[in-house]
Amino acid sequence: MRRREFISSAIATSLAAPAVARSAPASVLRFVPQANLTVLDPVFTTATVTSNHGYYVFDTLYSVGPDGVAKPQMAAGHQVSSDGLTWHIKLRDGLLFHDGSKVRAADCIASVRRWCVNDPFGQLLAAAVDQWNAPDDATIELKLKRPFPLVPDALGKADSSVPFIMPARLAATPPDKAVTEMIGSGPYKFIAKEYVSGSRVVYEKFEGYKPRAEPPVWATGGKVAHFQRIEWHVLPDAATAGAALQSGEIDWWEQPLADLLPQLARDKNIMLQRDQPWGRMSELIMNQVQKPFDNVKVRRAVEMAVRQQEYMRTTFGSDPSLWRVTPDVYPYGTPYYSDADKDMMRGDFAEAAKMLKASGYNGEKVVIINPTDFPQINPLGLVTADTLKKIGMNIDLQETDWGSVVQRRTSQAPVDKGGWSVFHTFSSAYLLSSPATHPLINGRGTHGGWFGWWDNAEARKLVAQWLAAPDPASRKKAAQALGHVAMRDVACVMVGQWYGKTAFRRSITGVLQGMSPYPWNVRPA
């Protein structure tokens, strides 16, 4: 409570001094992102802030809206052979990259193939593809080994690890190396000379972009850029960001701290809006290639100890509209959610301590890497450190910035060699709603799996069954069986589902809901 009282007092009594101009031309939108942008390549990392940046600079062949149906974006449409084994995707006319070159089928193929290497949905698509061809500059040809009706869904994947299209020369970069030259075909250009990590990111309208004619819904339809310039101002201190929004020094704050929402709601100049309709899930990720979490019995002890309500209250307060307990790997309200395994997550410290003792845990150090500059994540690490101490673990809480966490989590080394044991993050409910897109439960381990590297042959088999299922009932059966395996073997531990709000001044309008704070459709009121 002291933390909440301090922040509320800070915003109520004074305007901290954000490094933002007090006024700006109407053609400039000033935006505060959820975190610092340290990695620019949205295919190299799954960090949400990088994906948000990617939507400015790049475009996609397809996009998926709230109805779950993939719609053409850069694509004009497609044709499929009667046997389902050959797809021809036509590009729409007038597509240009920011350097003035035309977007070609070869660029799209190179981009998608690079994306397929690490993304779970992309890996499923790549396994079904026999050949990628470009019969001409405007035609992408996929020859498949077996029918894969979800081709548009894969190419239109939303949220993080999006199959953005970039020039072939950049897409030739190995997937384990980040692209640093930001040339896309999206509605905004990245202004490299004004980028200062930890301070500012600048984009300018790309006059060569031709939006689709349809109205925008999420990332589908026409992406019309109304501002000539958008400036991201990195303000990790919540009181500073809130004060800047109230004073008009910024126009839009992506993720206000939950403690400040009541005060912002009382300001007649500010609008609050739920950003993602289905919410997000916060996650506790354990490194399963190193001790002690290579031992499933240790992981089960952690799963038993987790009290989701404690994580959510600590992070988002007591407002019941902002979060809920969700004891499953799938989000509440999505088709495959089930609480059948909720007894594995009873939040019973005494039982968890017994389980840990019986597991063979030998006091190995557990290094929790935790960002101090990410209000939606930092409290999660603090709760985990306290929880794991209570059940008898040897905890080393190492707090750094989010950019350092994003870089360090790629390491599979032991903790004494710069590795890690636990970190926290969150994902959209949309991403976690399907075996094709859920990155934590595909069981791929170190062979294309996500950080934590859960390895499980039964999970891989069930993902394949889901993909080949002939009807919705069969798909649900396979998906829920996969969820049970992920809970039993502890692929990860979900620590709660929450519903964030975004805040912007009423001087702008057209802010869309969806998987990202999209820059299109936003305009002066």
Write structural notes for this entry.
With 525 residues, the protein is α+β, with helices and mostly antiparallel strands. It folds into three domains: 2-35 and 187-276 and 501-524, D-Maltodextrin-Binding Protein, domain 2 (3-Layer(aba) Sandwich), CATH 3.40.190.10; 58-171, Dipeptide-binding Protein, domain 1 (Alpha-Beta Complex); 280-498, Dipeptide-binding Protein, domain 3. The chain is 28% helix and 20% strand. It has helices at residues 2-13, 48-57, 105-116, 120-128, 151-155, 168-171, 238-247, 261-265, 296-305, 308-316, 349-359, 378-390, 402-408, 457-468, 472-489, and strands at 28-32, 62-64, 70-72, 75-80, 86-91, 129-136, 139-144, 188-190, 200-205, 229-233, 252-253, 270-274, 280-286, 323-324, 365-371, 394-400, 422-428, 493-498, 501-505, 508-509, 523-524. The protein has a seven-stranded mixed β-sheet. It has a four-stranded antiparallel β-sheet with strand order 4-5-7-6. It starts with a helix and ends with a strand. 52% of the residues are buried. Residues 1-18 have low confidence and may be disordered.
Keywords:
525 residues, alpha+beta, D-Maltodextrin-Binding Protein, domain 2, Dipeptide-binding Protein, domain 1, Dipeptide-binding Protein, domain 3, four-stranded antiparallel beta sheet, globular
